[in-house]
Amino acid sequence: MRFIHTADLHIDSPLRGLSRYAGAPLERLRGATRRALERLVDLALDEKVDFVLIAGDLYDRDWQDFHTGLFVREQMVRLGRAGIGVFIVQGNHDARGVITRQVPWPDNVKLFSSRIAETAHLAHLGVAIHGHSFADREVPEDLVPHYPPAVPGCFNIGLLHTSLTGIEGHDTYAPTTLAMLKSRGYDYWALGHIHARQVVCDVPRVVFPGNLQGRHARETGAKGCELVTLEGAALHSRFVPLDVVRWHQIELNVQSVHRLDALPGRVAQALQAAVADAGEVLHAVRLVLTGQTPLHALEARQPGTLAAAAQAAAQDVPGAEIWIEQVRLALRSPIDRGQLAQGSDALGELVRWVDVLADDAGALDGFCRSTLAEVLDKLPPEVLAALAHETAAASGPGEIPRLGDSAALLDLLKDAEATLLARLNVSEAQA
After folding, report:
1. Are 118 and 132 in contact (CB under 8 A)?
2. Cα separation of 317 and 315, whole Å?
3. Looking at residue 85, which CATH number applies to its domain?
4. Which of 212, 243, 274 is a domain's end point?
5. How does DSSP classify residue 258?
6. In terms of domains, do 211 and 358 share one?
7. Residue 334 located in a structural domain
8. Which pLDDT score is estimated for 169?
9. pLDDT along the chain (431 residues), means of 10
10. In this structure, are 239 and 269 located in the same domain?
């Protein structure tokens, strides 16, 4: 007996903000979740699996139109023609109360109830699948106590969308514990909701397969499904990558790079290491350059120079298709601040003023608020809305800092100081 366990497909996830990136492969990125599902179905057909389990968040949100539902149904029909059953529970993104449009499922699909836990008994396989869908997006209670006991003589599978006891970076939904899962006496728990693959327990097997397709730079690495085979009493499970766009975050220290013409080689080397043996996928890379280097002054005088050099390096990596989603700079200037601070000129005054703000979080916060207020008051409402979205997602160097985040504001202050000093030609980059 063989089956596939997948979760968090988020079909037609909107991928907001991509239009800001000139040259972005927009259609490939927007179609990635669909193509990943097609690859999942291809795998199921090639491996001749008996059934497919989908542990919630098949959809990302309510459909914009019926094309989303019809596309998914078409893939289910492909499975049905090969005699492959599909068993689905709804999660927080595609809960019964979230998805307002409907198309009828083909006969090979079982969507578990959102009112009670149900059991699908596959007598010809000796398998019992237990599941409970989300009725609404918010499910604060533990659903597992309502799951039926294991069916004697069967291989019992629990299908559940859950945050377990809470995992950093994920909202709490249908929280439960490993002990509670074990209390049901099942052989396999097919979980969903956590987007990074995680084997929680081996006996019984408790697995989050991760999402099927990474959707942004915080969902890095290979994404795919679990292919599970039961031979007698032996359970074999392996992860199969199915993503068509693979996200990477690469931090590269360029402290030893003093000349612009030396940068592409270093970047290409890092890119080559990251994408090696990844198969035919589009690699979307967020590159963070760090270190103390004269290149900082060059970038200050000619903004975009380092990003262009990195993009050129990506074009030279053989055997891989790479899109540089963003180049973020966490560089430091080699300027001797201590020496400048001793001066009586404007540069010395600038450095001393920055030191005062750096030592007083309240003064720094007040300065930033008063300065940014003048700018924000002049921005159109739609720009402010986009800014709020980006600020809420802030997660690393180069992100828009949140007012009240002292560490982020301090980084911004130091970067502004270094940029000013570089533009005043205090130090020359050797270009």
Report:
1. yes
2. 6
3. 3.60.21.10
4. 243
5. -
6. no
7. yes
8. 57
9. 97 76 83 97 98 97 94 98 98 94 96 97 97 95 96 98 76 91 97 96 97 94 97 94 96 95 96 87 96 90 93 94 93 79 82 87 82 72 59 45 71 75 55 42
10. no
**Residue 162 C-alpha from the chain's centroid:** 18
Tokens coding 93: 């993104």
pLDDT tens-digit map of 119-129: 999 999 999 99
What Å distances lie between residue 420 and 175, 279, 352, 354, 371, CA to CA? 50, 44, 14, 12, 17
Query: Could you please report the per-residue DSSP string of 142-153?
Result: --GGGSPPPPTT
Q: Locate tokens 């090979």: which residue?
A: 108
Cα separation of 37 and 13, whole Å?
A: 13
pLDDT value of position 305 = 96
Of the CA atoms within 13 Å of residue 427, those in its CB half-sphere come to 24
| pLDDT the model gives residue 45 | 98
Decide the pairing of beta strands 51-55 and 85-89.
parallel
Count of positions (residues) in the chain: 431
- pTM value is 0.83
Same domain flag for 234 and 269: no
Contacts for 355-363 with beta carbons within 8 Å, 24 or more apart? Answer: 357/413, 358/410, 358/413, 358/414, 361/406
Bridge partners, 287 (sequence order):
250, 327
Look at the chain and report how many structural domains it folds into.
Answer: 2
Please tell me the distance from the alpha carbon of residue 293 to that of residue 336, in angstroms, as a whole number: 12
Domain containing 193 equals 2-243
| Cis peptide preceding 25, ω within 30 of 0 | no
What residues pair up with 324 in beta bridges, in sequence order?
Answer: 285
Angle at the Cα of 299 from the Cα atoms of 246 and 412, rounded to 5 degrees: 80
Tokens at 431, concatenated: 């270009």
In a domain, 428, yes or no: no
Q: Judging by beta carbons within 10 Å of its beta carbon (0-12, 13-18, 19+), is residue 365 exposed, middle or buried? A: middle
